[in-house]
Design a protein that fits this description.
52% of the residues are buried. The longest helix has 39 residues. Helix 4 packs across helix 10 and helix 8 crosses helix 9. The two termini are 22 Å apart. The chain has 20 helices and no strands. The protein is mainly α. It has one domain. It is globular, with a radius of gyration of 23 Å.
């Protein structure tokens, strides 16, 4: 099938290369993406006013596509705030502390609990929910603080966030950019996430155990400003969107209500998961169920804790949540706006007819590339891993996965290989940039554990790189 490439295709490709180059240099790509949108708009409309208007319209288009994801994350963060300030999170996790009797159990216990909580609450709030309660217990049984930080990172920001099977923010971004159903990318990611998770966490545990035997990692926690002896406070500026409330900011709530909510909240989310399977809820429907449940929990806990001030405090918690959500996705919207132009957005925003037989800029480039370069499964998989890792170097994890989805659709030789390549790029991008290797993305876990984010990144480097290598090999056999 021959596709006629026009200047629009070449300009889009040139900006993709430029964006990747800027990411490699660890610089922000927002201006480059805006310039790309404007240039494409100028070519499509042949008017300056149309190109300038296209910038704003592309932002609106991207925001509409991402709105459900922004909302669910904002609501989850708002709910986590009230759980932290009322102490309900401590009661929820407290029964699990009785099973932590050794450093080994502490490492795997913290990791698995962090992964479970992150699937519902997202990793940043989960660090606060889990770390504040379990870290003192882990240190008492001999696990170094760096070991707890590694476990929270790899299981939360790694395994849970790279799959994101409940909130589904990551697979939606990559699937939309690749022009695939969200379910296909999620299904393809399951074996990749499992392999990546097992290899990285086992390797990290083996290295940590050897260091503990030789005395390199001593179970001594380095204090951080504002830290208390019971491990319940940490500097709020180090935990964006998920700070532990200082003692004076905590809201008193009867122990009886704390225990009741600590039992009811996990049950409600468990019922949500059951309903997802029974009613076959996926994508936006599943997200809506989780989000609605979180809102009801937020309202109920706030009213119980604040009583007469409950309505006003509910609004304040929502404001805090949405401030966090838009702060996180602020850098994502301009980038997504550019990459959405590679698919349906180009015709919706600019009404510019592409050549006859065109299926979008990215798909056209993929067809042309397949005709010029003999692609194979190995080249495609390696390319997606490297691309994902490069896009994650900005420390966001999410800002570049639209690019990952676009490139995956270009390198996919068959319909069956597209979801695997897309999922592979997603896994690589989030593991590198979502909070396991980039120091400035490691601040939440590092702050709650009182360790250096640069030291944490150094400890994660070998396990994550080994995991990416093995996962890429597995992906080659799956394609």
């Amino acid at each position: 099938m021959n596709i006629q490439l026009v200047p629009l295709h070449y300009v889009y490709l040139a900006f993709i290369v430029l964006i990747v180059a800027v990411m490699v240099r660890r610089r922000d790509t927002t201006i480059i993406c805006v310039a790309g949108v404007m240039t494409i708009g100028l070519l499509a409309t042949e008017t300056l006013s149309g190109a300038v208007s296209g910038i704003f319209n592309s932002f609106v288009y991207a925001a509409k596509e991402l709105l459900s994801t922004i909302f669910i994350i904002s609501i989850i963060v708002a709910m986590s705030r009230v759980l932290i300030r009322t102490g309900i999170n401590e009661v929820m996790v407290a029964p699990l502390t009785r099973f932590i009797r050794s450093p080994q159990v502490a490492y795997w216990g913290i990791g698995l609990i962090m992964m479970t909580v992150s699937l519902f609450f997202w990793p940043s709030p989960a660090v606060a929910l889990v770390g504040a309660v379990l870290l003192p217990v882990a240190v008492r049984v001999g696990l170094p603080p760096i070991g707890a930080a590694i476990a929270m990172n790899l299981f939360g920001h790694g395994i849970a966030l790279s799959g994101d099977y409940i909130i589904q923010g990551a697979p939606k971004l990559t699937a939309d950019a690749a022009g695939l159903p969200v379910t296909s990318v999620m299904t393809a990611s399951i074996p990749l996430v499992l392999v990546m998770g097992v290899v990285s966490t086992v390797t990290a545990f083996w290295m940590l155990r050897n260091e503990m035997k030789t005395g390199v990692s001593a179970p001594v926690r380095h204090p951080v400003p504002g830290d208390s002896l019971n491990g319940l406070t940490s500097p709020s500026e180090a935990l964006p969107g998920a700070e532990i409330a200082p003692i004076e900011q905590r809201q008193a709530i009867p122990i009886r209500l704390q225990k009741a909510f600590a039992l009811i909240i996990p049950l409600l989310f468990a019922v949500d998961v059951i309903l997802m399977f029974v009613l076959q809820l996926q994508g936006g429907d599943a997200t809506a169920l989780i989000g609605g449940t979180a809102v009801l929990i937020l309202i109920a806990v706030t009213l119980a804790a604040h009583r007469h001030e409950g309505p006003e405090e509910t609004t304040n918690y929502l404001i805090e949540g949405f401030q966090f959500g838009f702060k996180v996705f602020g850098p994502v919207i301009p980038i997504a706006a550019f990459f959405y132009l590679g698919d349906a957005a180009i015709t919706e925003l600019f009404s510019h007819p592409l050549p006859d037989g065109s299926h979008g800029i990215v798909n056209d480039l993929g067809v042309a590339l397949a005709g010029l370069v003999p692609l194979n499964d190995t080249v495609g998989a390696i390319t997606m891993t490297l691309t994902g890792a490069v896009t994650g170097m900005d420390g966001s994890g999410f800002s570049g996965i639209s690019l990952v989805g676009s490139i995956a659709s270009m390198f996919a030789g068959t319909a069956d290989s597209a979801p695997v390549l897309t999922a592979l790029g997603q896994v690589a991008a989030i593991w590198v940039g979502g909070g396991t290797l980039i120091p400035w993305a490691l601040i939440p876990a590092a702050a709650i554990c009182g360790v250096s984010p640069f030291e944490l990144a150094r400890r994660n480097l070998k396990p994550v790189l080994l995991g990416l290598t093995v996962t890429t090999i597995v992906a080659i056999f799956l394609i």
